[in-house]
Structures
1.
Amino acid sequence: MSLVNSSATWVQTHSIYNFTGSKYTSSRLYLLHPLKNKLPFSLFLPNPMTKPAIPFSTFSISAIVAKEQTNTPQEQSKTENDEVFNFKAYMTEKCNSVQKALDDAVFLREPLKIHKSMRYSLLAGGKRVRPLLCIAACGLFGGQESVAMPSACAIEMIHTMALMHDDLPCMDNGYLRRGKPANHKVYGEDAAVLAGDAMLAFAFEYIATATKGVSSEIIVRVIGELAKSVGSEGLIAGQIIDVCSEGMPDAGLEHLEFIRISIVDDIIDVTKSSQESGKTAGNDLVADNTTYPKLIGIEKSKELVEKLNRGAQYHLAGFDPDKAAPLIALTNYIAHLVN
Amino acid sequence: MSLVNSSATWVQTHSIYNFTGSKYTSSRLYLLHPLKNKLPFSLFLPNPMTKPAIPFSTFSISAIVAKEQTNTPQEQSKTENDEVFNFKAYMTEKCNSVQKALDDAVFLREPLKIHKSMRYSLLAGGKRVRPLLCIAACGLFGGQESVAMPSACAIEMIHTMALMHDDLPCMDNGYLRRGKPANHKVYGEDAAVLAGDAMLAFAFEYIATATKGVSSEIIVRVIGELAKSVGSEGLIAGQIIDVCSEGMPDAGLEHLEFIRISIVDDIIDVTKSSQESGKTAGNDLVADNTTYPKLIGIEKSKELVEKLNRGAQYHLAGFDPDKAAPLIALTNYIAHLVN
């Protein structure tokens, strides 16, 4: 892969990330530029005009990955080249790669407390959906995993930072995250604030220093776009409106759709136990958050998830089926987490 | 100024910033790489071997700027070209430039609360020592203000973020900052956490998107170095050790010197009122922080400031006196804040 190609891949990777990988705080899926809606395509395409190259239902594999079931029809997983795409193996391999990269990036050193705190949350597991989306999007354009890995890790670091700060008593006051006590329950509120800050800064340091085989022009662009997606018109925008809308009786669906796509996690917050979700269940109800289930009900929310997924699949239909397979599978995986 | 030159200037700017501009949390001056001590030169040079091109006492101008006095001997302010360097005018001009740039960068927009919170702390004033050091260091190598401004603003944004988080009840619990109620007293703890996060992310976005006339290679390097200076081996390292050492009876001077240069603000915390310093006075005493005044006393601490300043002046002595004048003056200004 040439430098030019890998560079192009990077931009595309992050454009795709802007589309599907922007889940940060309160475990919600936020639009990255909710106020400007700079998405490269609409997420709300109700009626795809063409049939996707890979059938919509082909990669309904959340059960495979999450529950270790293997009853998905393999014959439906074939791409146009008749190669079976094994999503479970893909997820396992990529998750291991991401875990190792994160482990190496934030290694234990002095001062011990801050690095222990960072590693506690960063290496606690999670589905690693965001870094995998980054890697899969890179792969969509022929880019190798190694090219996208620093960005993929940075995205996971930022996500983890957001969760750590979101769990603080002054925020959502979560006590459980990724199946373990929230960071501040173990290391204290002060360390949780500081470790989050350090993680956010390190995310940008890591992209700037660890990315190889990509032109500096592209790295600068990636940093600029990712930082924007985190800031006061991205992640934080969704979060502050979330904070402000808590208990607001007049916050409506239009308001909600304007700022975020949080349906999947809104549904999970209501329908799953803490043990199943690995985090404090029912936090939205306690805080009286304005969520999709609250406004339109569980079933309508699930229908909307399906519709969004169809839109995503439609937009992926024009790509090389072999290269698109991981991203298609990931999108289905996310959509089916609600079941 | 050529692209190459401005690029070189940038690197030097940030190296200089690493030296003198690393004051972030708890209003202390931290070394940026306290655990690795990667400073380009020693700060603890006791006996300069050569006489600086500009006498040490030439720019003792803190009184001019801080107290509007104009009794500094002008004849001592002449550079080798017999041009009088007017530090007061320099400070006023550059402060205004920085203020305008910050105002433009973080303009008021939706969501209003987060941007109001950010602007409240960012535009509250302060001495703007850090961005001015950045601009002055750029000028030391012939670089123009406009080249350094995005980085200068980013440094001030990061500093402001650190102050906002540092003032949180779970941290230093400060109620006064820059002469106004602390951010969380006005906008709430949740907004103060989020606005700080947004500011940190925006600092990197701003460097990546607003810097003009500098090669992408240098921008990537600047982002990498600045992010490292903020992270778990920089700003946060000092802060977490600060948190951990509170109330520790066995924390000694060696421990303190290893992690930070905080003498100026340690002294100010003890000797100045809240009205004079613009922030909660005596916080170190309340928290039983391990500070220089606590360990070696006020007078010895002031002597150490003088010694550090002489070391800084020594290292600036080899540069073009006209170009070095602002940085020399700024260094003296910082050193004399304790008087």
Note: Chain A has one domain: 3-338.
2.
Amino acid sequence: MERILAHIDDHFDAHLDQARRFVRQPSISGEGIGMPEMARLVADRITELGGRAEIVPTDGWPVVYGEIDQGAPRTLLVYGMYDVQPVEGETWMAPPFEGQVVSLEGHGPSMVARGVYNTKGPLAGFFNVVHTLREVEGRLPVNLKFMIEGEEELGSVHLPQFVARHRDRLRADAAYFPFYMENAQGKPVMWLGVKGILFFELTCRGGDWGGPTVRGIHGSNAVWISSPTWRLVQALRTMVGPDERILVDGLYDGVAPVSADDEELLAALARTFDEQTILQDHDVKRFKYDLRGVDLLRRYLYDPTLNIDGLVSGYVGAATKTLLPHEARAKMDVRMVPNMEPETVVATLRAHLDRHGYADIELRVNEGYPPAKTSVRQPVVQALIRAVRRLGVEPEIWPHLGGSAPFYLFTGELRLPFAMGGLGHGGRPHSPNEYATVEGMKRFEKSVAAFLVEFARG
Amino acid sequence: MERILAHIDDHFDAHLDQARRFVRQPSISGEGIGMPEMARLVADRITELGGRAEIVPTDGWPVVYGEIDQGAPRTLLVYGMYDVQPVEGETWMAPPFEGQVVSLEGHGPSMVARGVYNTKGPLAGFFNVVHTLREVEGRLPVNLKFMIEGEEELGSVHLPQFVARHRDRLRADAAYFPFYMENAQGKPVMWLGVKGILFFELTCRGGDWGGPTVRGIHGSNAVWISSPTWRLVQALRTMVGPDERILVDGLYDGVAPVSADDEELLAALARTFDEQTILQDHDVKRFKYDLRGVDLLRRYLYDPTLNIDGLVSGYVGAATKTLLPHEARAKMDVRMVPNMEPETVVATLRAHLDRHGYADIELRVNEGYPPAKTSVRQPVVQALIRAVRRLGVEPEIWPHLGGSAPFYLFTGELRLPFAMGGLGHGGRPHSPNEYATVEGMKRFEKSVAAFLVEFARG
């Protein structure tokens, strides 16, 4: 292991150049810029490292699929993405597609580039580790498979299609998502899962029940013609009480109790968890509940949520204009905690609206997938924990994220435990001056090398 | 009277040219196009007719003030406007600032031009009547004062200022607003007043109570951080019940009972009032109430309303984006019926929000003025009714409009009874192909001539 770490130190300038090779190729999925070129670059890199790679078409941007078979007992499926967010209209301190290293206040020398944090930097770093292990050991301790998608920034639209079509090729012992997990305070944060999400839209339009049906009409008619806007407000009010508690009967049904393992993780987490930092980071004065520590964390992680992401009706410009709108829309989401399923939630919401007399209100689902998590006891998770501890770091372990990602594809579709993370720090994803610290990029590679060695051990 | 009507018939081509002179001069207050030129044209017209005119500055577009003093016992204050709506982006069958006469299906020969209906046509027509009376009789039977504003399409922003500053000059026996009052079905509809309006905005932002204070934050935080959007929904729900009845304590206080005169008008009105036409015109399937005739009319005219004109919060684009918004806004209005005052309504709304625990929700008033109406018994109203009857027409008389206009300036500030209307038909105000029928323009002039004669008689 020492030889491996020393090799990373000795060749790190060349490793940075590999990361630079990736970030220099723009690959903006949302604008269709440089996507085939980037897919080719990733596939070529896998081939350079002795693997086989294929650019597999989907109904959207292709997936780069690769294999490095070493005849090892265990196989790891590496998930990643080759697309990045747009930079249109942003002002950067260094060109976003060059990979300059600049000194950032509070962070030291850092590479500033679109994608260097999210997530070309970690992906390039992973490949550097593969290269290093082959240089030092002659071979890898595990077999690798790669599934590198080009639509993560679009919501992984066609990844389910790819997974369904290539289930057999994707067989492995575990999945892994390379990512820098040290936050701005230098704390290494490790998540064992994600919440699910149901993103949907409620639309109330005038119809047989009343209200204008075709266009907004003069506001003076509100006195004798019903308002779809008021109707949507009334319907929403049946779904959530003044204390923000969800009133939709059955929405909490099936929510899994917190497991003993998770309670243990929560207790540990509460020792380093800092409520004030959360409030400050979000410019919020107080939480929804007068709770602290484990009790607050339990709410955060295990409560389903019904959120209004957006609400619009009628005239919302600066002027004075009276209008009786013909339509009101709410964009909403339910964050789903373990054991919740999008289909059940949709049925529950629909039944609630119908039961309260709002059968006319349209419920249209935009997107939905269930939560996904891996037990802390899984070998792949334990391997990652041991790896960072070998580098002298004690991770803060979260049973799962408050956020969502379609990792049910691993846990549900492919029945694979998964782990994500690695040391390293970066920031400002989706924003100007996205960065990763040079020191963190190096620490990342060392932690990944240790992870692969630990994972091979089982 | 016969000689007057014949003179109008004989000289009507010249009269149409006068209307054309007005519509050919663009005068778009909202875009600042042609405003001084149009004010000058109106002032010149008053001078041509033997009066004195002045273009009086305000903090916005000037008001054209004029007088034609005939030493008559009675004085009429004519209110009008010289501004029109924009035509930007509209497609017209004839250029909007030419005044072409074209044959319109269902309407016959009509002048198509911006402002010909709203309201340069009626204004030019009124001046034509003054010209005719002077030609035929040598003098007018009444003294005239003119107050022609340039900001009607902007909400008459500086008209209160003008009235306050020139109260003495505006003394008269009654006010009159020239307008074509025959609707698309050929029915002459006469309104004796308008509702008042309070236009305001409610804004709920994150603050000491919770919620994001500076910007929208990641939607996953909705599980432990409160939502200004849900809070606004909850607050709105306290104001109006599921049956759309207003729940704001005190909002109905002071609402005047329907007077005996108005009940008589309602009973007459119900004989010609057609519910189905209202529904069809607005593409609405049913009214808010299962009422008909007088009962429905009573609601329409004498119920205050609390309407949501617009509602907005968070992300309302087409994509999937989870967000916990930091702000939610509702643009709202209260239509005020007789005896309601904007100041009282504001205080009532504020007290309601405070009492329900929403003291943090901002209530900002954009505009507000009380209702205004004139009794059917007033001589100016009776004169207009007699005038149209002399031309063989029985008007449908409404105690007041469902809509609003700042006519409290007449009834309240200046203590003047007022009347509005005249025969004639036009349509599509604020829209492409705004028109007035040539036949209607002629009927308008005849009815105005009869009105001035009747008004002089008392």
Note: Chain A touches chain B through 75 residues (CB under 8 Å).
